[in-house]
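Predicting holo structure, 5-phosphoarabinonic acid bound.
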Amino acid sequence: MTNPDISKIFGFVPQAEFEALRSDAEYSNALLHTGEGKGNDFLGWVNLPSSTTPEFLTEIKAAAATLRAKAEVVIVIGIGGSYLGTKAVLEALQNPFASLQSERKDPVILFAGHTISEDYMAELMDAVKDRTIATIVISKSGTTTEPAIAFRIVKQEIERRYGAKDAAERIVAITDAARGALKVVADEAGYKTFVIPDDVGGRFSVLTPVGLLPLAVAGVDIDALVAGSQRMEAATSAKVAFDKNPAAIYAAARTALYRKGFKVEILAAYEPALQYFAEWWKQLYGESEGKEGKGIFPAGVIFSTDLHSMGQYIQEGERILFETVISVAAPHREMRIERAANDGDGLNFLAGKRISEVNRMAELGTMLAHVDGGVPNIRVEISRIDEGTLGELLYFFEKACGISGYMLGVNPFDQPGVEAYKKNMFALLEKPGYESATAEIKKRLQ
Ligand code: PA5
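Done. Tokens:
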């Protein structure tokens, strides 16, 4: 990955205003390394790639091999940062039509615990009725309600089918080293466990066992993923000068736009494989920046699909939007549009062209149209979608998020606002300890 192309912000932000942010971006990056900024007990992700040893990756791959040998379907249970990173990388790499392939060498990964939908859970359990199953349950706190409910159901099913002893070999828990209900359950039952380091928050945890184990089970090359993140760790270190540091440049560009009133950032990609990458990115930036009445609202689109739904608003709606495009230079596959004897659909002008060439022109045409319509554009280019470039992108956006959060003046590593719904839900469910809030909240709903 090269530096983001920020040339299309300068019609909206004077170059001098961007330049004035250099030192703040460099200082904010340095704070992530010195540990002198806010939330400094959650900076374990900063040096995580370079401290990931080959021995540790071997241990992950061994646990993955056990699950792969035992199950056709591995149910990955988790929510938020304990879900989205795996989902993002998997969707980016997997053939979207894999379910139609008759022979599979990798287990199917299904997700649970990211929703409390009864229909979803019931249909999931129906779907795996005739398949051998195993599960990876992921919760840093070990107490989150959504994954806890899903785990109870999946655990009971595994124990019913295979008995307690074999069940213990089909369940891996990834949680805190010492705290939380999941840790207690895992220790009692003797599950294999992996630890989410204390100093790595959920949304920064994809390169810990949280992401690495399920991805290894799915057949993803985690060595290449980690190697990509290591390259980006080096490229964005505090020792790298601003002009060569992609994370500092991106953070400064989006901060400059925010200060000019561009309060919504749309992460756009022209490859549907990156749809969940945008979901991961939304959580990373939304939970890190959206606090104290501040922060850029993160949105995601896949073009050209969403040009036919969101395109009108982006082109002509409120002028508070800017776009960050993940541009993929080359597809993996080659397919050309053939000449037709009867040019009834009028497409012979495209004959001989690759579909990706049309996609590229859609991308360039859209960028110019949106810039003309008042939407600044930042472009992040990767050569192709693979483990290495995804590892680079994951770390790039994490690093830029930390820098941006400090430039915004918030603690990017907490999420106090997430508790509000939980308190109300527990009071409504009459959870022990919430009795005093129950009567009052029920009255508010009458
Ligand atoms: O980024 C975060 O910290 C959160 O999104 C968490 O990942 C999410 O709430 C899940 O928490 P836990 O892993 O403790 O179940």
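Residues 79-82, 139-141, 144, 147, 201-203, 287, 415 surround 5-phosphoarabinonic acid (CB under 6 Å).
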